Amino acid sequence: MILKNQNEGVKREKLGGSGKGSALSFPVNIPDTNGAFTMTTRLELAPGSSIGYHKHADNEEVYFIMSGKGLYTEENESAEVAAGDIMLCRRGRSHGIENDGSETLVIGAAIAKRE
């Protein structure tokens, strides 16, 4: 299945509930509910912006760093990430990411339900 981006970027603030700054979100609709994935988007975080630390109680999320660099935190352990890195936050765990670089951090993100 190919899911094409049909949307203009949407400015969002406080991503993750407590994120700093703002990001452009380019959500892609998933046309059915038959599979595991419930959401997918591309995010563009300006320098200094973040997706706040949050918990995935009932689902899992994967981030794909497309360009830029950032500081990823999961379960209170942090690591620098850059283009090509993939982070997987399993159900019951908490994570967040901050653009601590000088250029836009572009992330692909997908959330999957877990039964």
UniProtKB/TrEMBL annotation:
<dbReference type="InterPro" id="IPR014710">
    <property type="entry name" value="RmlC-like_jellyroll"/>
</dbReference>
<protein>
    <recommendedName>
        <fullName>Cupin type-2 domain-containing protein</fullName>
    </recommendedName>
</protein>
<feature type="region of interest" description="Disordered">
    <location>
        <begin position="1"/>
        <end position="23"/>
    </location>
</feature>
<dbReference type="GO" id="GO:0046872">
    <property type="term" value="F:metal ion binding"/>
</dbReference>
<keyword id="KW-0479">Metal-binding</keyword>
<dbReference type="InterPro" id="IPR013096">
    <property type="entry name" value="Cupin_2"/>
</dbReference>
<dbReference type="InterPro" id="IPR011051">
    <property type="entry name" value="RmlC_Cupin_sf"/>
</dbReference>
<dbReference type="InterPro" id="IPR051610">
    <property type="entry name" value="GPI/OXD"/>
</dbReference>
<dbReference type="Pfam" id="PF07883">
    <property type="entry name" value="Cupin_2"/>
</dbReference>
<feature type="domain" description="Cupin type-2">
    <location>
        <begin position="43"/>
        <end position="106"/>
    </location>
</feature>
